């Protein structure tokens, strides 16, 4: 049989989100409470120059925002320039995603 007629299971299901994918995009009630140990370690070391207190203060500041627009503005105007974050870096994108999930 011709190989172009074979459809692999993974190919047919590639657009169906997994339970893990859905969980990663669901609303969270607390940024800090939703972070894994690895995420905290990564964010503290790569985004906050190893300063855990500064990380906690930043997350608290973001949590006190009224909506995602306000939190995003704080990130873009206050924290990105202060720490010279590369907004295309995976850990920065992941941090922004966590903040966005808090305000969905």
Features:
104 residues; 64% helix; globular; mainly alpha; single chain
Give the arrangement of secondary structure elements:
Elements: H1 9-12, H2 19-25, H3 31-34, H4 37-47, H5 52-63, H6 68-83, H7 90-102
Helix pairs in contact: 5-6, 6-7
Average pLDDT? 85
**Bulk shape:** globular
Radius of gyration: 18 Å
Give the count of helical stretches.
Answer: 7
* Share of residues in strands: under 5%
- Secondary structure: helix percent: 55-70%
Helix/sheet category: mainly alpha
Low-confidence stretches: 17-23
Ends apart, CA distance between termini = 49 Å
**Main β-sheet, in a few words?**
none
SSE ordering: HHHHHHH
| Number of E-type strands | 0
Structure, explained:
The chain has 104 residues and is mainly α. Helix content is 64%, strand content 0%. The protein is built from seven helices and no strands. Helix 5 packs antiparallel against helix 6 (68-83) and helix 6 packs antiparallel against helix 7 (90-102).
